[in-house]
Amino acid sequence: MTDWVLHLIDSGGYWGIGFLMVLENVFPPIPSELIMGVGGIRVGQGRMEMLPLMIAGTVGTTIGNYFWYLVGLKLGMRRIKALVDRFGRWATLDWGHVKALNRLFERYGQVIVFGFRFMPTFRTMVSLPAGLFRMGHIRFLLWTAAGATIWNLILAYAGYVLGYNFREIDKYIGPISTAVVVVIAILYVWRLITWKPSATKKD
């Protein structure tokens, strides 16, 4: 994956960075750490500049997240209720949980979207409920872009400082990502076995 990312960045420049960051958020297995880290290396080499790199990375991240926001918006609460009623057991979710999440997003949606930008895996997943619970478009985009700007700057600056050694991080990203997926799978199986629907009445 590293060689493919490097080729796309070197051939596409800032457009390549933006495109990869869109893909990273639509298909999370592509690591933003590698994309922005390599971008930072190119800044250190004088082949890119930090400001347009940050703009490309943040715009790409925001577009990728907006895709999942629109998916959630399109689904809507009515379709989700039908899905929860039918498949809630397998998602360990009932309508009471959905309503509780809805209230949470109504009160703290911007904090949740911003904070989750710094969490592996969940930084993309949070966009779906944000759309589902109809968080405002502008509010979603602004807080997503704000969190993405900080995270991308950290990654780009790390690449700038570490230089070529940053490529070694890619050797660890894969196993760490796999470990996270395994832990999530174990937790899901445990919750599936022990889950019981809440006593909250449907409405």
Secondary structure: elements and pairs:
Layout: H1 2-26, H2 32-44, H3 50-91, H4 95-116, H5 122-125, H6 127-132, H7 137-162, H8 170-194
Q: How would you explain this protein's 3D organization?
A:
Pfam families: VTT_dom. Residues 30-160 form the VTT domain. It is a multi-pass membrane protein. There is one protein chain. With 203 residues, the protein is mainly alpha-helical. Helix content is 80%, strand content 0%. The chain has 8 helices and no strands. Helix 2 packs across helix 7 (137-162) and helix 4 packs across helix 7. The longest helix is centred in the middle third of the chain and has 42 residues, at 50-91. It is globular.
Taken together, the total number of domains comes to: 1
Largest sheet, if any?
Answer: none
H/E element string?
Answer: HHHHHHHH
Taking pLDDT < 50 over at least 5 consecutive residues as the criterion, the unreliable ranges are: none
Strand content: under 5%
User: Would you count the extended β strands for me?
Assistant: 0
Q: Between the first and last Cα atoms, what is the distance in angstroms? A: 48 Å
Helix content: over 70%
In short:
This protein has 203 residues and is an all-alpha fold. 80% of the residues lie in helices and 0% in strands. It has helices at residues 2-26, 32-44, 50-91, 95-116, 122-125, 127-132, 137-162, 170-194.
Q: Which features would summarize this protein structure in a list?
A:
203 residues; mainly alpha; 8 helices; globular; DedA_domain
